[in-house]
Amino acid sequence: xxxxxxxxxTVLLLVLLLSSCKGQEGKKAAAxxxxxxxxxxxxxxxxxxxxxxxxxxxxxxxxxxANQTSVIFQANGYTHLVDSLLSRQVDIKTVFAPEHGFRGKxxxxxxxxxxxxxxxxxxxxxxxxxxxxxxxxxxxxxxVVLFDIQxxxxxxxxxxxxxxxxxxACAEVGVPVxxxxxxxxxxxxxxxxxxxxxxxxxxxxTQIPLVYGLTxxxxxxxxxxxxWLKADNKVDLTVIPxxxxxxxxxxxxxxxxxxxxxxxxxxxxYPSLGLFEGTHINAGRGTEFQFQRYGASFLDSTQYNFNYIxxxxxxxxxxxxxxxxxFGKDLAKSERMNAVSLKWILDAYKxxxxxxxxxxxxxxxxxxxxxxxxxxxxxxxxxxEIKATWSADLERFKKIRxxxxxxx
Length: 408
Hints:
single chain; alpha/beta; seven-stranded mixed sheet; 29% helix
């Protein structure tokens, strides 16, 4: 028999007292009040569903694309996927590391070097150094590539670019790819400007909206079936699905997916505040509240009652506005977002006395996926007016997206 908490014990005692006073009607009420609320089934990530993918790795030479988020969860913590596979005698030949490295410690944009993992002695091949796409030689001793990285569902977050280039390389040499799916914490909506083909870069490799509302497994299938790989190639792709996940799920990431996304608030604000990456405004790098605040020393200080001073720290050795008092806004108490918001970038632009100091045009165009957004902000359009120009592209994309949804 389960042990009741003091609170539940008190409630049960009151219910029994009421029941004895009110007879049969009271017993019905007691039964009703005693019912436990229905529990939402816990989401199971694909990495935990070992029975679904271990048979596909048996007697195979395996290359793994992984970082610090590639874990199998346990009751008392988690085990890294690579460590787990090695303990099961899976023949891992190579680990490919994305931006921020295999252990997730490099700055954004910092080159990651090849090396050897000190824990496992496995060779680490960087996909954020000299080459961002595995070479034929690097895939020569792999019979299958296993991809398992936590995404956050934003086009300029580079893990999906790594996924696409891995798929492309594997298609060219005939190596199958297995994607272990993980929840998208921003997977409950689709919004933002769509990328124009002429502005393709590592910050956007396909013509999708800023927030695309797909898990990384669903997105892999879209890449493959929409023939977005070079030469219209397709890779032999298997996606191991999540269990008990829906796109409405409010999923908490237990491991930060990169150094500057420390918590749920930063992740929900990232699609909106990430646009500041293409400006001279600091978006919290160099503080412990990355993507939960913004500011700059050159913004009109009379318009803000919040300020902070960025300093070099974990994940940001050289933050914008380093050691300067930045005037701006604190957004650390923001609720979960259901759309991209432009109000903060419009606010900062409005309160920038010297507009020439605001944009880093080339970078902003890559982040937005189009030069039009900067032009609209400079022209003084409202958020509603700007968003109206996204609607046709968003509707087109949503129709494509429907074909690849694996979850409600």
